[in-house]
Amino acid sequence: GYLYTDYFLNRDNRKYNIDELNDMSLSWGYEIDKKLSVYDIMVFFNKEKNNYYIVHRGTQPLSRTGVADILTDAKLFLTGKSQRMENRLEETEDIIKLIKRKNPSSTISLGGHSLGGTTSAYAMTSPYVLNNINELVTLNGFYGGIVNIFQNNMNDLNDEEIMKLNEKTTHHRMQGDIVSSEYLRSVPFGELLTYQLKEGMRH
Q1: Which 3 state secondary structure label does DSSP give 139?
Q2: What is the C-alpha radius of gyration for the chain, rounded to an integer number of angstroms?
Q3: Under a CB-based contact definition with an 8 Å cutoff, are residues 51 and 103 in contact?
Q4: Measuring CA to CA, which residue among 146, 24, 11, 13 is closest to residue 77?
Q5: What are φ and ψ of residue 80, in 5° steps?
Q6: For residue 186, how many other CB atoms are within 10 A of its CB?
Q7: Which of 41, 53, 62, 120 could join 112 via S-S bond, C-beta 3.0 to 4.6 A?
Q8: Which residue, among 106, 110, 97, has the nearest Cα to 1 in the 3D structure?
Q9: In this structure, are residues 86 and 94 in contact, taking their beta carbons and an 8 Å threshold?
Q10: pLDDT tens for residues 111-167?
């Protein structure tokens, strides 16, 4: 998710092209599925594991949607709502439906970094996504603000679905990361794992 976010730097600043990103993914056994991917969400496939990984991209101020990324972050902090977040939820549902038609025996993972961690977690509160995703993994996501982002959707889930949501979700954050610092006070659902920031790493 972190590498995917950096791919969306403007072309002059981009650290790697789509083929290089795919090569890096292949080193972990995953290949980009370009037919299933959309601008805000990229899909990777591991043939050996028969696993699809749906990844929501994070905020990238230097991308062509940099202003929209920042405005989305601000809306989520102030109101807990964003049309872009709703769009990503719908796109995630559509991608899952395509995967199920294409490869019904496969497993599906979901995740994202920063803003992508937030929107993928929000998508996971959709009953359709929740019941068709095997795991949610986020990194340095934003989950707090003036208004609870997830509460309305979670209120519509039954006890069994809430249990699934907690069991399937792992949030990862780097110690000292400001974006995910809300987790120090509360975790909306799932397990939180915090890691010490290594020298030279950044958000």
Answers
A1: strand
A2: 16
A3: no
A4: 146
A5: 75, 10
A6: 10
A7: 120
A8: 110
A9: no
A10: 998 899 999 999 999 999 999 999 999 998 887 777 789 988 999 999 999 999 999
